[in-house]
Design goal:
Layout (H helix, E strand, L loop, with lengths): L3 E5 L3 H12 L3 E5 L23 E4 L5 H11 L3 H8 L1 E2 L4 E4 L1 H14 L3 E4 L11 E4 L7 H10 L5 E7 L2 E3 L9 E2 L10 E6 L1 H13 L20 H6 L26 E7 L6 E4 L8 H8 L10 E3 L2 E8 L1 H4 L12 E3 L9 H19 L12 H11 L25 H22 L5
Parallel strand pairs: 1-2, 1-7, 2-6, 7-16
Antiparallel strand pairs: 3-5, 4-5, 8-15, 9-13, 9-14, 10-11, 11-12, 12-13
Helix pairs in contact: 1-10, 2-10, 2-12
Length: 439
């Protein structure tokens, strides 16, 4: 085996992986194909170039992304340190000067004594090295094919159709009933029933709502199995009532009759703390999703933990393929990180890269590998992507719905979030100290 950690991809995940691995004593070879091979989205040759928004999400300490950032600071994250250094005013969001951000990260890694940066395109994943694949949604065609072969092809996806996820505590259960169609099996679904008038009002709002226009490099092909809900609606007023909102096999116990249409919600995690809007993948803008979908009975005050989207992406079916250390189950010298592991967002990508880099360095030096407690933001995100139902696996951002319930339930939202934050940071601090990672 080679005596260095090989990292493929110099985005936020790859850069954070290189930093963590190098700071824990490993020699690192970081491959980045730019500028020799360009992508459709990047404009520079800098590492960790941010290509869309300059915001790294909420910096509010009582938000789920804010908790993740606080934990990353405890780990000495390069991405968060530089972001803090080059932050620009953006309210409670952590927004950065994109040029300074990429330049500072590139310079820091270039000057690190344990890091070697090679500007080459990698076509194959090396089998003789501890390797982290962190190439993101714009993975080159040749490397995509190598990943396809390594993961048995059916577990690699190029376009993801994402339905919104809502917080269970925000649902109006007085208007929702629990049932499965024809009462088959257990009553696993929450059902939001509509009469004809409500359905027609919802339909009219849906087809008139603003939609996100695809980026120039996306050219998204719509497949019949994952059409956006609004595209289905464009085919006619009754399309949804005979499609994802069909009421067949469902009886509303409050009326004793079959509704005109039904939205079904499926539990998104083992805790039942958040639910997925089944079949509601969408290209509506985020504000329009919240406005239109809150017209559905039971969702009037719904808190959206993740909005729906359909966009170009490359990710593997993590619950099938990876251990909770981000290693391949069948080839433990290979790690995956970043958007390839189904995490949404710059910070989430960097956080997964940090864990992969840390564990890769430990594997190279024959130390035990580490997994953060599931009560922490890192651990909750990792637990979700590695244990959720593979059939329904879709990319996720960090949110409160991923954290396990508190031992003592708290109804007040702000007090509940504060308790989750305090528990997360306390247990993350204990974990870093016990693991010898405290800084």
């Amino acid at each position: 085996m080679r005596q260095d950690v090989v990292i493929i991809g110099g985005g936020l995940a790859g850069s954070e992986a290189a930093w963590q691995a190098a700071n824990h004593g490993a020699k690192v070879t970081l491959y980045e194909m730019r500028p020799n091979t360009e992508t459709a989205a990047h404009k520079t040759e800098q590492l960790a170039e941010i290509v869309c928004s300059n915001s790294l999400g909420s910096n509010d300490p009582l938000s789920a992304p804010g908790i993740l950032k606080q934990e990353m600071r405890q780990l000495g994250s390069l991405i968060i340190k530089v972001a803090d250094d080059v932050a620009v005013p953006a309210g409670t969001a952590l927004a950065v000067d994109r040029d300074l951000f990429a330049q500072q990260i590139t310079q820091t890694l270039t000057e690190h004594s344990n890091v070697r940066i090679l500007r080459e395109e990698i076509h194959d994943i090396p089998e003789d090295a501890v390797c982290i694949v962190a190439t993101g949604p714009l993975t080159s065609p040749k490397l995509s094919e190598a990943i396809t072969q390594l993961t048995r092809s059916k577990n690699l996806y190029f376009f993801d159709a994402i339905s919104p996820i809502v917080d269970t505590d925000s649902l109006n259960m007085d208007r929702i009933f629990r049932a499965s169609r024809y009462d088959k099996g257990t009553a696993d679904y929450l059902n939001c029933p509509m009469d004809e008038e409500t359905y027609n009002q919802f339909y009219d709002a849906l087809i008139q709502a603003d939609r996100v226009q695809p980026k120039s490099f996306e050219n998204i092909p719509y497949f019949e199995g994952c059409l956006p809900i609004e595209v289905m609606a464009d085919r006619g007023r009754q399309t949804l009532a005979f499609g994802p909102m069909k009421p067949v096999g469902l009886i509303d116990p409050k009326t004793g009759t079959r509704p005109y249409a039904v939205l079904q919600l499926r539990a998104e995690n083992h805790h039942g703390s958040c639910y997925n809007l089944v079949g509601f993948q969408t290209k509506l803008t985020y504000p329009e999703q919240k406005k239109v979908f809150r017209m559905i009975p039971g969702l009037e005050q719904a808190e959206f933990l993740r909005c729906g989207s359909i966009h170009r992406n490359t990710f593997i079916n993590v619950p099938v393929l990876l251990k909770d250390t981000l290693q391949l189950k069948k080839q433990s010298n290979i790690f995956f990180a970043g958007q390839l592991v189904g995490v949404e967002g710059y910070v989430e990508a960097a956080a997964s890269g940090g864990l992969a880099g840390l564990n890769a360095a430990r594997l190279l030096s024959a130390q035990n590998l580490l997994t953060p407690p599931p009560t922490t933001a890192h651990g909750a995100l990792l637990h979700y992507i590695t244990t959720c139902e593979p059939k329904y696996f879709q990319p996720i951002n960090t949110n409160f719905g991923l954290f396990p319930p508190l031992d003592t339930p708290i109804r007040d939202k702000q007090k509940k979030r504060q308790a989750i934050q305090e528990r997360a940071l306390s247990e993350f601090t204990s974990w870093t100290a016990e693991s010898g990672l405290a800084r």
